[in-house]
UniProtKB/TrEMBL annotation:
Record-annotated active site: 249
PANTHER family recorded: BETAINE ALDEHYDE DEHYDROGENASE, BETAINE ALDEHYDE DEHYDROGENASE-RELATED
Lineage: Bacteria, Bacillati, Actinomycetota, Actinomycetes, Kitasatosporales
Protein name as annotated: Betaine-aldehyde dehydrogenase
InterPro entries, alphabetized: Ald_DH/histidinol_DH, Ald_DH_C, Ald_DH_CS_CYS, Ald_DH_CS_GLU, Ald_DH_N, Aldehyde_DH_dom
GO molecular function: oxidoreductase activity, acting on the aldehyde or oxo group of donors, NAD or NADP as acceptor
Origin superkingdom: Bacteria
Start and end residues of each Aldehyde dehydrogenase domain: 10-476
Family: Belongs to the aldehyde dehydrogenase family.
Pathway(s) where this gene product acts: Amine and polyamine biosynthesis; betaine biosynthesis via choline pathway; betaine from betaine aldehyde: step 1/1
Gene3D superfamilies, sorted: Aldehyde Dehydrogenase, Chain A, domain 1 (3.40.605.10), Aldehyde Dehydrogenase, Chain A, domain 2 (3.40.309.10)
Length: 480
């Protein structure tokens, strides 16, 4: 079945290339899909360019665009089970987590649908001159390249597709080559919802062949990218010669700060979810635990006791609480970080070796791992391992906690645990991160902006700024 979607038509890759998609939980073949090359990427850009320059979508009233997004939200809810299953097969993620993601995805479309339907982003400017009508109107940026990762395939896609469409853009979507299925399914729903041909285009394939052309091509106006730091740097450089608008959602190495006066039970519970959710393959994961000296021993003992008891299993194993990593190569990367940490003096408290259970043999499993006595310079503390690996550092006081927390090139999220409200607020205000939780970890809502500071990227997704990212402000001055 052809899987590239270009100019409203399903098509096969021009070069005839295909890629096997295998489930990370057991290596079974999910499907074989088309693998786009430069020629396909170029055709998709051309279709998006035509649809932007001469199609109806950019000029469609925002109320109508908003209604289409709301219709997509309904269709996603109708097809929730099929989408969640496809997402779990591609990622190895537990089905309940994929189902949960589906609710968030529908809510994202609903949020941007309502915001777009309400319109009202244009503004009259009061110049003080009665002979002038001055206003700022918001227009779409143009053709957007939307490039997404494998850890939350459709969720990250929805954060881009919904506002891009709401603002009136056309786009070429390039999902991760490892997890293409829900993007294919989304194209079908957009068509069913009535989106005109050429507005949404899909190319599947590897970054250098299917993705890179989108970042270099002069017919593309904007690149919105979610993925790793190294790829982000490459994309920024590739977009520079044509001065494209760029938005980057990159990695994180996020601190979870626990003060001695924290609510012990909740702090332990959330410290586990913070880092082990989706096997640590979460950009916002609380992978660096900072614990106040006097709490350290009891806290880490309890955390390790519970981490050892987390059952691993495939996406459809109802007893499993954590699943496999995405690929063999990714597991090797995580193992290398743990080995480096141990060589640098970290103490292994649990995990650290592949499971030997026969039923997990064919998947890329790696257990929840806790490394104690870590120090800021260690690579396992500094770099994003993107696996189920928690590093533990101690701190004496608030000053040292903030210094350790901010001692990273990243700035995506962070959390602080304390029953002292003043301290929670103080520390939150000093963390250089796009999202900070006080006595919580991981929640987000589509109404609030998401994004990074420092090398976690720039630009925002979700919230009003998430829509503004896909708009150009134009000042129109009329001499009356
Ligand atoms: P990645 O950077 O390897 O790939 C991301 C996407 O970029 C893929 O679609 C890939 O094919 C494409 N790509 C690779 N090279 C390219 C190139 N030269 N030109 C154009 N496209 C190219 O990242 P990944 O391994 O898929 O995802 C994991 C990373 O994503 C982690 O670092 C994680 O923190 C980050 N992430 C960030 C957020 C956030 O909100 N900040 C959310 C999810 C994931």
């Amino acid at each position: 079945m052809p899987e590239l979607f270009i100019g409203g038509k399903w098509t096969t890759a021009a070069g005839g290339q295909v890629r096997e998609i295998r489930c990370p939980a057991d290596g079974t073949l999910v499907a074989t899909v088309d693998e786009a090359g430069t020629e396909d990427a170029s055709a998709a850009i051309e279709a998006a360019r035509d649809a932007f320059d001469s199609g109806p979508w950019p000029g469609t009233p925002s109320a109508e665009r908003g209604r289409l997004l709301l219709r997509v939200a309904e269709l996603l809810e109708r097809d929730k089970a099929a989408f969640a299953r496809a997402e779990s097969l591609d990622t190895g993620k537990r089905l309940v987590e994929s189902e949960y993601d589906m609710d968030d995805i529908a809510n994202c479309f609903r949020y941007f649908g309502n915001v777009t339907a309400a319109g009202g982003t244009d503004r009259v400017v009061h110049t003080g001159d009665p002979g002038v009508d001055s206003r700022v109107v918001h227009e779409p940026v143009g053709v957007c390249a939307l490039i997404t990762p494998w850890n939350y395939p459709l969720l990250q896609t929805s954060w881009k597709v919904a506002p891009a469409l709401g603002a009136g853009n056309t786009f070429v979507l390039k999902p991760s080559e490892l997890t293409p299925h829900t993007a294919i399914m989304l194209m079908r729903l957009l068509t069913e919802a009535g989106l005109p041909d050429g507005v949404a285009n899909l190319v599947l394939g590897a970054g250098p062949t299917a993705g890179a052309p989108l970042t270099e091509d002069p017919r593309v106006d904007m690149v919105s990218f979610t993925g790793g730091l190294v790829t982000g740097r490459r994309i920024m450089a590739a977009a520079a010669p044509t001065v494209k608008k760029v938005a980057l959602e990159l990695g994180g190495k996020n601190p979870n700060i626990v003060f001695a006066d924290a609510d012990f039970e909740s702090a332990v519970d959330y410290a586990l979810t913070a880092v082990f959710l989706h096997s640590g393959q979460v950009c916002s994961a609380g992978a660096r635990l900072l614990v106040q000296d006097e709490l350290h021993d009891s806290f880490v003992d309890e955390l390790v006791r519970r981490a050892k008891a987390i059952p691993m299993g495939g996406p459809f194993d109802e007893h499993a609480r954590t699943g496999p990593l995405i690929s063999a190569a990714h597991r090797e990367k995580v193992e290398a970080y743990v080995a480096a940490g141990l060589a640098e003096g970290a103490v292994l408290r649990c995990g650290g070796t592949r499971p030997t259970d026969p039923e997990l043999r064919d998947g890329f499993y790696y257990p929840p791992t806790v490394l104690d006595d870590c120090a800021p310079g260690m690579s396992v503390v500094r770099d994003e391992s993107f696996g189920p690996v928690l590093t533990v550092e101690r701190f004496r006081d608030e000053e040292e906690a903030v210094a350790l927390a901010n001692d990273t090139v990243y700035g995506l999220t962070g959390a602080v645990w304390s029953q002292d409200t003043g301290r929670g607020q103080r520390v939150a205000s000093r963390l250089r991160a796009g999202t900070v939780w006080i006595n919580d970890f991981h929640p987000y809502v589509p109404q609030a902006e998401w994004g990074g500071m420092k090398q976690s990227g720039f630009g925002r997704e979700l919230g009003p700024a998430g829509l503004a990212e896909y708009q150009e402000a134009k000042h129109v001055w009329r001499n009356l």
